[in-house]
Amino acid sequence: MRVLVTGGLGFIGSHTVVALLENGYDVTVIDNLYNSKLVVKDRIKEITNKDFKTVIADVQDEKALDEIFKDKIDAVINFAGYKAVGESVKKPLEYYDNNLTLTFALLKKMREYGCHNFVFSSSATVYGNPERVPMYETDPVTDATSPYGETKVMIERILKDIAAVTPDFNCALLRYFNPIGAHKSGLLGEDPNGIPNNLLPYIAKVATGELKEVNVFGNDYDTPDGTGVRDYIHVVDLAKGHVLALKKLEQNPGLVIYNLGTGKGTSVLEMIHDYEEATGVKIPYVIKPRRAGDIATSYANCDKAAKELGFHCDYTVLDACRDGYHFQVEEAKRKKEGK
Ligand code: WQD
Known about the structure:
Layout (H helix, E strand, L loop, with lengths): L1 E5 L4 H12 L3 E6 L7 H10 L4 E4 L5 H8 L5 E4 L6 H6 L1 H22 L3 E7 L23 H18 L5 E7 L1 E3 L18 H9 L6 E4 L11 E2 L1 E3 H15 L5 E6 L5 E2 H12 L5 E4 L14 H7 L7 H20 L3
Parallel strand pairs: 1-2, 1-4, 2-3, 4-5, 5-6, 6-11, 7-10, 8-13
Antiparallel strand pairs: 9-12
Helix pairs in contact: 1-2, 1-8, 3-5, 5-6, 7-11, 9-11
The protein binds UDP-4-deoxy-4-formamido-beta-L-arabinopyranose.
UDP-4-deoxy-4-formamido-beta-L-arabinopyranose binds next to helix 7 and strand 8.
């Protein structure tokens, strides 16, 4: 079975390609290197000792898609898209244009070549500021708190409308909570360009000395210690969830929706403490005002994925802190050696 992975050299995409190869799938990756590096291709091969097809192009490049779909593509997992929440607030047109247009191009090409299985990288942001926690898949999808989140809401809506009138179309909407950590080899991980927006990559750069201290955005939320609570899932567990979702689509379920999280919330201060415990590195921090658009608490109910996919997390937040730090240290060494 051949799977096309768009954005397959990115953070979550690369870990998912590893999981697919390790589970015997043939893989084609398309990636425009907007938020990834070509060297990741070699690292995936080093980890899995397996080869796979890589096309360096934009998903909107129709010639590239025709070249890819000449091989029989049995399923598509779509990671490609802009994903920086803060940037999306400043550049809404670019976010709506890029994320929606590439999805349209992909879905039309799938229809042209008779590919009926689609896994969509959705997000907990579709729940907006939730009425209740933990969040369930049946909870209302409301106004997301950013144009980035809105693109996820809109694409979910589009996929639901397509599935409603396309009997042989199978689609899994995977709502990720907060992906963190790295592959235990230290070869794959999250390495955003510039100053990280997300908490864990920021903590990692404080740990390696590239940044001075963590800015804790608010300690006056209605949470046990006043700081924001999130559901942090190890990226390797998240990748496994995609393989399980693909297996589910083989049963022709139509459109299915799953939360992929741990079912547990961790506050910012707890995360800093866990990171120190996992790595032995002191993480200085300073309390700052709240960040616009942040919500107090977000964590998943994952019973549905457990029951219908057999999904469960093998790794803890401490494992993710340890693996994420290991990647940062190894990446710093590689950069110093010019690799
Ligand atoms: C986590 C917590 C911050 C940075 C985002 C996207 C979401 C998903 C995951 C893709 C919050 C606090 C953060 C910092 C801090 N991505 N924080 N200092 O905002 O929950 O979700 O990433 O789907 O779509 O919105 O993640 O890591 O930015 O923040 O105090 O320097 O850490 O306030 O409570 P977030 P995050």
